[in-house]
Amino acid sequence: MEKDRVQRYAESLQRTIQNNYHYLKETIEDFQDLCRMVTPERNVPAGILVDIREMYKEIRSHLTEIRAVEQLLHGKYRQYYHRDSLRDKEILEFGFIAKNCYSKFEYTMMQVEAIKRLKEHSAEGKLPSEPFQWFGSDENQVGLIKNLRMLKELDYQPTPEEVGRERRDGTGIRTLTLFLFSGDSFSLDHLQSQIRVREHDLLERYSREEIRGVLVHLRKVDPIEVEKIFQKWMESKGLTKLKCLLLPIHSSKDLEGDLLNLIKTTLQEMTDGELKTLSI
Predict the structure, then answer these.
(1) Per-residue pLDDT, 1
(2) What are the distances in angstroms from CA 251 to CA 10, 126, 214, 222, 226?
(3) Among 42, 51, 81, 144, which one has the highest count of C-beta atoms within 10 angstroms of its own C-beta?
């Protein structure tokens, strides 16, 4: 009797996965169509923007439930779990499609805001400088913008108690480090297979001769400390032919001006195997 009860419960868990799968299968195409409607040139009703955000929340919720149930079945009810590899593959694709579409949607919304501000500045006779484009992919660029926005949101006047605490432990002060590896494609291939980044960090193979990334620090970090970590890591992996450039970022203002041209000039002056921190 106990075995039958456990088996019935395992079957109910599998039905939960199947129900979530059907929801995703029916929803994902509509979600894609709504996201495609959003372009910088089109005036999209606010209701559609709300629907896109709500649908994405629902899709993520269903994906999270599937992962939780699968984990339970893999563990406690493994003997009753009959995997459907085709369904599992589709669910993974649904997650990738949803994330990709929503990232493009967010990036488009930022473009819309940038165009709006540009028009406002133009009307006032002031033209802002071009936005800093560190990554080639929209998804990574959106991730960088989010991190920069986080720096701005954390730029507040703390209480005396918070000031004292932050001076002691360095917490509450988020900073970024932009990093760039430049060199021959073979060494970069080796680097790409070895390097691991944390959840909020970003990494991109920008070109055959260049890898770019962003490290997110949740406390105040001395640039020399970051430099030592990179130096030690490069030496341990035998990456002696690559140039490595580090850029500490404390606010979005650090990215103003002709920074990309400065980076290009600095790289040309560096020798193979050299690591340098660029003071902005």
Answers:
(1) 54
(2) 51, 22, 14, 15, 18
(3) 144
Which tokens is 75 given? 């563990």
Q: What is the pLDDT of residue 89?
A: 92
Centre a 10 Å sphere on the Cβ of residue 152 and count the other Cβ atoms it contains: 11
Q: Is the pLDDT of residue 123 over 70?
A: no
pLDDT per residue as tens digits for the range 135-154: 988 788 888 887 887 776 54
CB 59 within 8 A of CB 20: no
Question: What angle in degrees, to the nearest 10, is found between the helix axes of 138-153 and 85-123?
Answer: 60
What type of residue is 11?
A: E
